[in-house]
Design goal:
The chain is mainly alpha-helical and 161 residues long. The chain has a single domain, classed as Up-down Bundle (Four Helix Bundle (Hemerythrin (Met), subunit A)), CATH 1.20.120. It has seven helices and no strands. Helix 1 crosses helix 3, helix 3 runs antiparallel to helix 4 and helix 6 packs antiparallel against helix 7. The longest helix is centred in the first third of the chain and has 26 residues.
Length: 161
């Protein structure tokens, strides 16, 4: 992984840690869209190599896999779902930050289903980190597959292509 991804993740974690519920309620829609997109971007950049290693598309590197799995777990703690605020379901005209959103309206019309899908992804990520801590390569690869399935399921229902 490139060092800048680690800096981005650290910056996101610091920023998110300082966001209170009140601040979320007062957040501009474009800032909420930007926050969730940034978290998901780091998740994707982090998980991509893990998926590649699990699928045998790139050589397995235990140290890199463990670091990536633990980073993914830490970034997921930022909870991207809390940034799907009212008014963030469509692009913000004139915004320089969030000119688009791929969020489907089902996020807001089926909030319980969305919450469960996100919880499933979080649980799968937690199990991936647990497998990484164990050092068992087979368990890590299997857990990565489950993360991929959980993320895909959420994206299939709630992310426009």
């Amino acid at each position: 992984m490139k060092p800048r991804t680690g800096y981005l993740a650290a910056g996101l974690m610091f920023a998110a840690a300082s966001v209170s519920s009140l601040a979320l309620a007062q957040m501009k829609p474009e800032d909420a869209i930007h926050a969730r997109q940034a978290i998901m971007r780091v998740n994707g950049l982090t998980f991509g190599p893990l998926a590649g290693m699990a699928q045998g598309k790139i050589p397995f590197n235990k140290e890199a896999f463990v670091a990536g799995a633990l980073r993914l777990e830490a970034v997921w703690q930022l909870d991207p779902t809390k940034y799907f605020l009212p008014g963030t379901d469509k692009p913000i005209p004139g915004s320089k930050i969030a000119e688009y959103t791929n969020a489907k309206s089902e996020i807001w019309s089926e909030p319980a289903k969305f919450k469960r899908a996100a919880e499933n992804a979080g649980e799968a990520i937690g199990k991936l980190a647990q497998a990484a801590r164990s050092g068992d390569e087979s368990a890590m690869k299997s857990a990565a597959g489950n993360v991929g399935k959980a993320c895909k399921a959420c994206h299939d229902d709630f992310h426009a292509k």
